């Protein structure tokens, strides 16, 4: 079973809330976060391809469709449609933040196991980018005045490969990690789209309306 | 009631006359038409190399009494080949639909059975109210890492076949094409066309799932398309249109992050604005001096377009000489426009 130690993440320094008067609001940083998810999704595509080839068949086969066994502690992107729609901003951002915190931890664990130096380099690069995304989400939350989620005392998980897991099951864990990461990045793009639309000042909408009608 | 029988195209079939003895004297008819006795083997009808035309109602009669002994409704057909199945979500995130067809006809009735599995969970595929070969699935959960597996089996009286496809939620997303694509010339702008369109009405939530668009346009006389990708908005102004040429314009849509591009929309046609042409009358041939009433000179355009025809015409000059001069200048202007088309 995958587990993770991420003390360094949970203790990010609190970003002071931005001075509201005169600042552009959280809009630009939401846009930046959205852009980061797109960049990461693109990066992940090549990284995942390489990593799955390293795992070998059947993991790198396009039709590979295993049942979701194990990997229970992975944060799941899947959510009921209506629940997702009705998430308030704070919860939406918190879920993203918590998910990536865990995923980053697991990825760092992956890095330790990876065989080739090149693969380790790619993973390290991706981890850095993912760290950047976390920081960006933290910035948006701070700008909106939401507290960063803190782990409950005593529940801080530690990463260690389950000794009972066979080599195959460990590879399955890796497979699901990458899958979940990709899905989260797609979900985050939608999450931040929603946030972007809500933050859009009404004046901008009116301007667009006029332009559309031309002369 | 006649006995219904299905036989394979190209095969041979022997139809016994019910319970009659082999040596009974019978006559066979198909759809009321007598059949030649050379097709008979005793009282049995032998049909070789069945063709579609062999389908029909076969009846055998006691030769003397014309008593109807037996009827067979024969259908000639084929067992089904592997069906073609595809699924698509044009209503993301509401759901998706799957449609199927057989690559070649069987000529006899087929029944299809579709099952949808999400991991180990069976999902309901609701039949389309209008289309026989389509059914719809509603998403319960979004952002799933588990693939969907859609299986279809088809069977008829002569055989059966099946196929299945597996896919991720995101890969089958493909919106319908944008609607109501309209292209309009822009007054006083001979190189512009204003294009507007609407997001497809089937896309349920453009707010949370915004679409981006791809526009392509070309003058009818050329084969090469120009392309523009637009990340938002449902309008665009083309600024490099060739003056006076009719354009064909199409738009496609795609979810911002996932899935594939829609098909191209219905094409819109438009020609950029051109200056009102001056009417060339018979004065152009003969150096007749006529009044200006028979030639209608357009008033000079208000925008400053580089048009040599403008020079000296002043609009509506009544001197006969100036008419022929204007004609010459108008021809020169036409030549100048032609050379600016870069063709």
TrEMBL record, chain A:
The keyword Protein transport does not apply. Its main location: secreted. Residues 1-17 form the signal peptide. Keywords: Cytokine, Glycoprotein, Secreted, Signal. One of its GO terms (cellular component) is extracellular space. The keyword Signal applies. It comes from the Eukaryota. GO terms for biological process: cell surface receptor signaling pathway via JAK-STAT; positive regulation of B cell proliferation. One of its GO terms (molecular function) is cytokine activity. Gene3D superfamilies: 1.20.1250.10. It holds the Pfam family PRF. InterPro entries: 4_helix_cytokine-like_core, PRF/CT. It is found in: Secreted. Forms a heteromeric complex with cardiotrophin-like cytokine CRLF1/CLF-1; the CRLF1-CLCF1 complex is a ligand for the ciliary neurotrophic factor receptor/CNTFR. The CRLF1-CLCF1 heterodimer binds SORL1 (via N-terminal ectodomain); within this complex, the interaction is mediated predominantly by the CRLF1 moiety. The tripartite signaling complex formed by CRLF1, CLCF1 and CNTFR also binds SORL1. Belongs to the IL-6 superfamily. In complex with CRLF1, forms a heterodimeric neurotropic cytokine that plays a crucial role during neuronal development. Also stimulates B-cells. Binds to and activates the ILST/gp130 receptor. This is Cardiotrophin-like cytokine factor 1. It comes from Diceros bicornis minor (South-central black rhinoceros).
Automatic annotation (TrEMBL), chain B:
The keyword Disulfide bond applies. InterPro entries: FN3_dom (IPR003961), FN3_sf (IPR036116), Hematopoietin_rcpt_L_F3_CS (IPR003530), Ig-like_dom (IPR007110), Ig-like_dom_sf (IPR036179), Ig-like_fold (IPR013783), Ig_sub (IPR003599), Ig_sub2 (IPR003598). GO terms for cellular component: ciliary neurotrophic factor receptor complex; CNTFR-CLCF1 complex; external side of plasma membrane. Coiled coil: none annotated. SUPFAM superfamilies: Fibronectin type III, Immunoglobulin. Residues 10-60 form the Ig-like domain. It is found in: Cell membrane. GO terms for molecular function: ciliary neurotrophic factor receptor activity; interleukin-11 binding; interleukin-11 receptor activity. It comes from the Eukaryota. Transmembrane segments: none annotated. Residues 272-311 are annotated as: Disordered. It is a lipid-anchor; GPI-anchor. Residues 282-297 have a biased composition (Low complexity). Residues 177-277 form the Fibronectin type-III domain. It holds the Pfam family fn3. Keywords: Cell membrane, Disulfide bond, Glycoprotein, GPI-anchor, Immunoglobulin domain, Lipoprotein, Membrane, Receptor, Repeat, Signal. Belongs to the type I cytokine receptor family. Type 3 subfamily. This is Ciliary neurotrophic factor receptor subunit alpha. It comes from Diceros bicornis minor (South-central black rhinoceros).
